[in-house]
User: Fold these one by one.
Assistant:
Number 1:
Amino acid sequence: MTIASSSPPSRLPLGGAEGARTKQRTDRAPTREGRGDGRLAAVFVAPALLGFTVFLLWPTLRGIYLSFTRFNLLTPAEWVGLDNYVRMVHDPVFWDSLAVTVEYVVINIGVQTVSALAIAVLLQRLTQSATLRGIVLTPYLMSNVVAGLVWLWMLDNQLGIGNELLSALGFDRIPFLADETWAIPTIALINVWRHVGYTALLLFAGLQAIPNDVYEAARVDGASEWRMFWRITMPLLRPVLAVVLIMTVIGSFQVFDTVAVTTAGGPANATNVLQYYIYGAAFGRFQFGYASAMSVALLVVLSAITVLQYRITRAGQSDLG
């Protein structure tokens, strides 16, 4: 006599049309959810994308086109090919303005980077007070125009408090913004005063990301503070420092407002930086085609410097591991 088995039937995988429908439902759910997230992301990105297109992308493309034309706002743009670029190459004022700009960038970047790094290290090692960080950041909250005007009055040759202090100490008065030798260093130091706090806080954030265990191990091995700074802090801070340098170099090449309110390019073109020369060509002499050509040249120079800095400093790599 045969006895039927009472064990439950085994669960077999669904096959045929039913299995296909189940798989289709499983695959479809995340796809719909992903599409919903994509639409929501597009809604949030749209305002920024619109602003980027209207205020950055379109003016850049328009400027590149105008660089190949002769345009003065009163008549339609006339295509002239490379004439503006040929004129730029043979323009001594352009090269003088570029040299003045490079001098400003070297002074500004050198002093600002060293000062900001020193302030960041002091904030990291001595105190991490939020109040002190707010005080350090205060000059950055002031616009460049206001900062330039304040320092213009403070450094006035006759009534400025700076020259009053020099005179009280027995030194001769210095025409900081009216002398060809002093003008660019003075403007550079004014901008260092305004931006150094912001740069220091960026570097301070980078220092916060370095583990304390690394310093503790170095102290156990007998390393001094100076040796830890060069062997630990600087290598591990390199990616952040590289990004900060790229940002400050780009911003330094675009200096304009401080020059406009303090020296207006003088004396004798000693502070006629490239941005101010471009502004004068466009809105002073209505040579928008030539001004656009110089702007495109500045864009190319900044792009090349940025790529070179990124590769040399290895900004995309970190020694933390």
Number 2:
Amino acid sequence: MEWSFVFFLNSALLGVGLAMDAFSVSMANGLHDPRMSRGTMCRIAGTFALFQAVMPMTGWVCVHTIVELFSSFEKFIPWIALALLGYIGGKMLVDGIKGEEAKEAGELSAGALLMQGVATSIDALSVGFTISEYGWLMALAASLIIAVVTFFICMAGLRIGKKFGTKLSGKASILGGIILIGIGLEIFISGVF
């Protein structure tokens, strides 16, 4: 492939497709903390964008170096996403049912954010196969375009979540937990079947 409008369009559309899980998780985070600051929103969206850029490049490197190892790892991706999102969503759900969300809603911990970043972007590893014919510079450009698209989509998800989180007040963590568990199940089912 060469540098062209089609390359940029394909990369942007790939970014939209890959960002849907991160968008949903961002909405859940916004539901969980309707008073989230703009800085926290940028940190969350930036983390998702970073992971969405790193994973395709990691996949690209794997294709060009250790293809056999990567292809055997690929079958575990749905299981890892289900475990990570199930854990985070389950914790939010339990906290919401116990009524602890008012105390918990302050800040998303760095560990939970990293787990969300991995869980929502791990399927992007396989994008390394689709961009394997690109040179390293084009692969890097595609990954950066995916990251920018992801950032803006996640910011939109956070804003939507915050808006509805304020309206749902007491039950936002329950809804957010259900959404995260649902996303984990969707990744698992579509990856296994």
Number 3:
Amino acid sequence: MNTAQPTAINSSSPLHGVELGLNRSAGEAVIRRSELRATFALQGGRTVMTDRYYSAPLRFSRSFRPPGGGDELCVYTSDVSPGVLNGDHYRSDWQLGQNTHLMLSSTSATRLHPTPSAPSSVNHHFQLEQGAVLEYFPECVIPFKGSSSSLTTTFELGEQAVLAYADIWSAGRIHRGEAFQFKRYRSLTEIWQGKQLAVWDRFGLKPECDDPKPSAALMGYTHTAALWMIAPGLGAAQLESVQSTLPPDGRMLAGASVLATGGIGVRLLGMAAWELQEQCLRIWNSLRPTLLDKPSLTFRK
């Protein structure tokens, strides 16, 4: 449970939410922390945000209800800075109350800037209570040339909770010729169903030591995606529908399998983030009307 007390969103202090630490040996600022927290509850048959807090440069960009008058709430987050800079540490915490339904995305890519003196990190934590639904489709993660960064995303699912999460990654600013020019990148996704670990997905790459071109994990592609879908009753019977939605081998390469604890995981390789994003939505939308009794999901930005 998030026990933080409600906190004013805005502050007159320009350093509100920004913590600067000094590296005594190097004499350089190495730490800047930014936090974002939100709590959701079902009130009057609709999901509402009951508490929120953020510190610069993270913020809530907008929240609205999709057409149709359902119980869902759609929320976009944003980073008002150029991106995750040297020594930055971002953290977000999300608490979804019983039977709430949140559609979540970001307004721009997670841009991991060069880290000449201190690595950066991004951590997301989600807790879904019984019957809660989370559809999380953030923009792509892009490690810039010279960056050393990590991304950790953790989900704790209560009974009957539903999760659809698309994790999309680029090998750098491809259009600027920076493919695989970052120093190091690490990511970890954990999904817990009660006390049972349903997904433990770890990826790490250090291009100077690990040549990505012959890598069996990348096979010459520059972008990756993982789509994790967990819902009551979702398993082998729905796998055939998902597999029929996968793109043919070529510009994208994809495969799907049933998770040991129930649910479906999909892996995709590609050459463009937007293509993988569209494909992940297409796959989820092949199941969404049946699982949630709702129309296809779209994000308008």
Number 4:
Amino acid sequence: MGTTQLESVPEPKYWHLKTVLSEALDSEFTVGEILPNERELAARFGVARATLRQALEQLELEGRLQRRRGVGTTVAPPRVGVDVGTERQAWPGATGDTWHPVDCTLAAPPAAVADALGTDRDEPVHIVRRSRVSHGQPVAAELLYVPRTSVPDLTAIDAPSGAARARAVLRELQRPVLEGQDRAVELGSARADDAKELDRLPGAPVLVVTTRFFAEGRTAALSVATYRADTCRLTFGASGGVEIHHGPERQAS
């Protein structure tokens, strides 16, 4: 693709440039590839660097680009689908689960979580911390709260500490029959701990997905998962396979 001089267009120049850049990302660059510096890009497209920065910032907001300290601006991987449909119901840790156990502690949960679980507010529960990674980059962090009554056969021998303890809790959680689950999704801002784990700045937009798992007529576990809003998309239904990047003429399954 040769140098493109932008002519008068009815939309803001940076917005038109964003479309041109997006097409170049699809045709010329691969995931993780570093873009040329701002001076080279501005010269190539015949725009001021201020206009270029606006276009790059918009593409970053849309999840097409990632700016990484010490690296530069790179092409972002495809968005990760966050299934919020009800067709597929499974315990955390079941076959096909894409989360990675990180750690597990036994502690009293936040009051709202204790109320949702139906436990006393000072009663310790298993808190499993898990992460989700795409193309080597963190895209989500989860806290899974599991009352001790949901994993009654768990022993210290099975779950010494850390990731091993997390895996043991998840394994024991598979034993009861899952009777159902529900989800709630809301837009939020990354707290300091979430931001650090997700490699974002505090206050960055995130999607918070809360899931309750039901067994034996009660809430057997509760998940609070925080997703990077710039790298994730909500999917509904059995497949959730259609993603539109640019417009109705460019879509992929």
